[in-house]
Design a protein that fits this description.
Arc Repressor Mutant, subunit A
Amino acid sequence: MGRKPGIKNTGHSFEDYFKRATSPMMTLLLLNEKPMYVYHLSQELEKRSNNTYKMNFLYPVLYRLQQQGYVTEYTQEMTENHRTRNYYAITDEGREHLQLMLVQYRDLLGAVDTVIASCMDKPLHQEEEQ
């Protein structure tokens, strides 16, 4: 995303932080349906989010999920000339972790929505009374 007028460049946007926090959950959600290779995973995520949620760095997410035991990797031959593709699949432990993440995400999202709703009737530039 480009820099918006009046917004300080801190190096990372809200969107960057949000994606970093939710990318393991999003990855596990899609892999819970079926094993996928990285390009398919990326395309599916973009398609289902109406091109809003794009992850440019899926490999580090997948490697971290593998190290944690939530994802496994396997190679499958795709063509007669022995071209292969690496697929990723969720593990049983990954499914358990995904369930926990979804509960935590919904709880946090609800809490954030509650705070936002309680603040929406106040102007954004309200000065504190002394």
